[in-house]
Specification:
Order of helices and strands: HEHEEHEHEEH
Distance between the termini: 45 Å
Shape: globular
Number of strands: 6
CATH class: Alpha Beta
CATH architecture: 3-Layer(aba) Sandwich
CATH topology: Rossmann fold
């Protein structure tokens, strides 16, 4: 436990240094591919969130999800892509090959679906090569292009707000 606190401290410090130099790039691409980073420690309605995105017009086969858990658990679904705290070093190096592939993929939209700031999630969001990043207002503002002020439990309202503003921004 104590080592986890120290690791989070150093990881947070590393991320803050990187975010100070970080500039968000603006692209005017139409959104076709979506990446979602979900903190599954608190939010378990992943399939319902994906269903809502499909209802508004996105294709399910163009949506990829990365599930974050604080600790590795037994009986995890084999068809899901997971990341754990142990997959990231103290200096912010990602050790998992599948997570590196997720981060390096050029998504048109990255949805950071977590409203509690965790260093591992911030690192993934910052390193992602997505063209447009969306998240919650309670997270560091230097990571996202667009932020929604809702709790994570209100995924239906989140998708409605996201759709409304993506339409205004001519992203869909």
């Amino acid at each position: 436990m104590f080592s986890r606190i120290i690791k989070n401290f150093f990881l947070k410090r590393t991320i803050n240094k990187r975010l100070e130099k970080h500039q968000l790039q603006h692209h005017s691409h139409i959104i076709k591919s979506i990446g979602i980073v979900i903190d599954e420690t608190y939010f378990k309605e992943t399939s319902a969130l994906i269903d809502q995105l499909v209802k508004i017009g996105f294709k399910e086969d163009k949506i990829q999800v990365l599930h974050f858990l604080d600790k590795k658990k037994k009986n995890l679904a084999s068809n899901k892509q997971y990341i754990f705290n142990k997959d990231i070093s103290w200096s912010g190096i990602i050790k998992s090959e599948s997570v590196i592939q997720f981060v390096n993929q050029n998504f048109d939209l990255l949805i950071n679906y977590y409203d509690i700031e965790k260093p591992a999630l911030l690192l993934i969001s910052k390193k992602s090569k997505a063209n447009f990043k969306v998240g919650f207002q309670s997270i560091d503002k230097r990571v996202h292009h667009f932020m929604v002020n809702l709790p994570a439990e209100q995924y239906k309202d989140f998708v409605i707000e996201l759709y409304k503003y993506l339409k205004i921004l001519k992203k869909i």
